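To: structure desk
From: M.T.
Subject: fold request, one chain
Message: Could you run this one when you get a chance? Sequence is below, nothing fancy, just the single chain.
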Amino acid sequence: MKKVLFASGFACTPAIWRPVEEHLADVAAYRVSWRKADQSVDATRDFLEGEILREKPDAYVGHSLGGLLLLELLIAQRIPQASALIVDAFLEAPADIFKNYVWEDVALREEVTAMLDAQRPDFARLKESIMDWKREGWPEAALETGAHFVYGGRGASEEEVMEALALPHLLIREGQISILPKTSHFLMLEQPQAFAALVRATLGL
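Reply: Done. Structure tokens follow.
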């Protein structure tokens, strides 16, 4: 049984992955739980590195901040090279089309907002550190990691989403970016079955 490490986004709990795990019963899922004591990007990244080196997963899935931290570790070659799926993470400031949590599902949006509101106070200083995080040259370096990227379609066409991403350098390798229709930032909660299928396909599970 292959082990996959799941790293959540800022102010997210590991529970966001549970709906996906129901469709990945043959996969050993390890969900990273962020520590409130880690109040800087450096400390959070080092913690994630330690989790990876201890757990030795076969593949990585990182959502938002979790995806960016995975990319930084892969770029710096601080963790073993492995298949990686980076979920709705932005290497540069995102366009307005991407600034929403959930596509159309009001109840789920309220649930997600409540989770974030409850968690944010415990990670206020980490948020400040994220704002100062320098990531020059990342698009090109991220390409070299071989990671696959997936973004929510936000009700737009695939062409519109790709244009808003403004990352043509990542399109060099066919299939390196996927768009999951009718989802926004929390793809794994909005379309867990389709997201699980994407995890299987991109990570070779």
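Reply (cont.): The chain has one domain: 3-203. Let me know if you need anything else for the meeting.
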